[in-house]
Amino acid sequence: MHADPRLLTEFNVTDPQHVTETPIASIWRVKQADGTFACLKRYKDDDLRDEAPGFDLLTAQDGVGAVRIYRQHGAAILMEWLDGPSLGDMARNGDDAQATHILGDVAQELHKADVTPPHSLDPLPNRFKALFAATFTPDCPPQVRATVQAARRLATDLLAKQTNIRALHGDLHHDNVRGSARGFLAFDAKGVLGEPTFELANAFRNPLGSDTLFSDPAVILRRAEQWSAALNVTQSYMLSWAAAYSALSLSWTHNSVFGPDVAKDMTLIDTFLKLRAQGTSA
């Protein structure tokens, strides 16, 4: 995979080394005029898709807790190079406790930035539309229906009681944080506007390929303890957002239609709800 020479000229970079392909983008490591490395990310079909608000957010962060965005040209972005490792690799290699701690620190650092929210950010109530629109097939098991409805009621309550609404990364999890010369930094933001506790809701379901790890109640409780402390909320409140987000994610995956095929996916949400009920009132 070769980088477009026109982009190299536009960004004044050389020596493109292809790093990876994602479903929506191609990524190269390139060398800047001063000899330092940068990351060149070009989106396929010249379409940033739902990540355009995320780059607005990362630009506004100006490097606080996040990758620095150097320049944008259409659907191509030149940004700070992050050597790694990722927190996802750290957790998959057996040190989830340390990864959990660092992820909490990154969330805190992101929220230190005095950011005027870009107009493109997606408000949380809008983001949850897929969950609120969820329907059930005639043969949907009663337990699936009950779990989704419980998570939906929880989401309604959480969104109605949001506090300290601010610009959020919106997709903060282990594989979206990598090490660098400036410490661990977040990247690949979605860019949303809402309650700070939402920031780590998705992280409970990560990293990718570690289902046994993140489904373990002991791990969930440890993460809830560390992340609730980082965000200065109760563990039950943290778990409430985890349950609501997990139901939202399944709504996206299944186009807001729940049936017998999603029964196995309810286990994690049920665990969040059970542990939440055992803790301090949210």
Q: Any chance you could write out the topology, listing elements then pairs?
A:
Blueprint: H1 5-11, E1 13-21, E2 25-32, E3 37-43, H2 52-61, E4 69-73, E5 76-80, H3 87-92, H4 96-112, E6 122-123, H5 124-127, H6 129-132, E7 135-136, H7 142-160, E8 166-168, E9 177-178, E10 185-186, E11 192-194, H8 211-214, H9 217-231, H10 235-253, E12 257-258, H11 266-278
Parallel strand pairs: 6-11, 7-12
Antiparallel strand pairs: 1-2, 2-3, 3-5, 4-5, 8-11, 9-10
Please, could you describe this protein's structure?
By secondary structure, this protein is an alpha+beta fold. It has two domains: 5-80, Phosphorylase Kinase, domain 1, CATH 3.30.200.20; 87-278, Aminoglycoside 3'-phosphotransferase, Chain: A, domain 2. The protein has helices spanning 5-11, 52-61, 87-92, 96-112, 124-127, 129-132, 142-160, 211-214, 217-231, 235-253, 266-278; strands at 13-21, 25-32, 37-43, 69-73, 76-80, 122-123, 135-136, 166-168, 177-178, 185-186, 192-194, 257-258. The strands form four sheets. A five-stranded antiparallel sheet has the order 1-2-3-5-4, sandwiched between helices. A three-stranded mixed sheet has the order 6-11-8. Strand 9 (177-178) and strand 10 (185-186) form a beta hairpin. The longest helix has 19 residues, at 142-160. The chain starts with a helix and ends with a helix.
